[in-house]
Amino acid sequence: MEAGNLNNSMIHLDGITKIYQMGEEKVHALKNINLDIQKNEYLAIMGPSGSGKSTLMNILGCLDTPTSGKYYFNGINVSEMTDNELASIRNKQIGFVFQTFNLLSRATALKNVELPLIYAGVKSSERIEAAKVALRNVGLSDRMEHKPNELSGGQRQRVAIARALVNRPSIILADEPTGNLDTKTGEEIMALFNDLWKLGNTIILVTHEEHIARHANKIIKLLDGKIETITDVSK
Ligand SMILES: Nc1ncnc2c1ncn2[C@@H]1O[C@H](COP(=O)(O)OP(=O)(O)O)[C@@H](O)[C@H]1O
Ligand SMILES: [Mg+2]
């Protein structure tokens, strides 16, 4: 593996392009994206439907690969990683939070939060301890034995956030995390993200709502696959 780039950002995107081939037609979903994300940054990605937000998220989360350009994660070129190295980054370095929570419906909150640790091969007693701490940190100590359908939407998203955090990732990626929540519950979830950011976490969140994006300290607006503006939000 190469020694890495000279840039010491946590994330460094250099000329990232993504083209989807749809039969005869090419869809240019991302066009020459250059972006640096530092440790403990809180970034919101905005833009209209179809502007490339999810495509960018999927590339940042190592769920998809760019057509061209370079992606350095902690100085390492992601395109040169093996499948095992990529899987390890996804499991250990990145915590994912989705609009639809994506919890296992038959498993308790505790079991759902234990899952990433099961995949990581952590032994049972340690796993349970870590999952309890993560649930406590999102204010769900009294709901550990509840299954998703016995929890409110906001509580389900808290379980998903505890699951994203349980193996102490270096970065949290959230795609429209408040999209299925009412305004008040959405604000509670945003307050939780604020707390996580103050504890030193790096957060990247996709949203189309201005009042949600305002919680971040940097807002990127995508338009037609390109970065239209980058705005620093003063706190
Ligand atoms: N798997 C795919 N195959 C073909 N085209 C896609 C695929 N995913 C997204 N696109 C296209 O790429 C563009 C960006 O999509 P997307 O990243 O999902 O935008 P957003 O999340 O901002 O709504 C859109 O034109 C979309 O139709
Ligand atoms: Mg999307």
Q: Any descriptors?
A:
28% strand, binds magnesium ion, 7 helices, 4-stranded antiparallel beta sheet, 235 residues, alpha/beta, Rossmann fold, 6-stranded mixed beta sheet, globular, binds adenosine-5'-diphosphate
CATH topology: Rossmann fold
* SS-derived structural category: alpha/beta
**How many H/I helices?**
7
Distance between the termini: 40 Å
Number of strands: 10
Beta-strand content estimate: 25-35%
The structural domain count equals 1
Shape: globular
CATH superfamily: P-loop containing nucleotide triphosphate hydrolases
The largest beta-sheet arranges its strands as 6-7-8-3-9-10
CATH class group: Alpha Beta
The unique ligands bound to this protein are: adenosine-5'-diphosphate, magnesium ion
Mean pLDDT: 93
Q: Could you state the order of secondary-structure elements as H and E?
A: EEEHEEHEHHHEHEHEE
CATH architecture: 3-Layer(aba) Sandwich
Using the CA coordinates, give the radius of gyration: 18 Å
Helix content bin: 25-40%
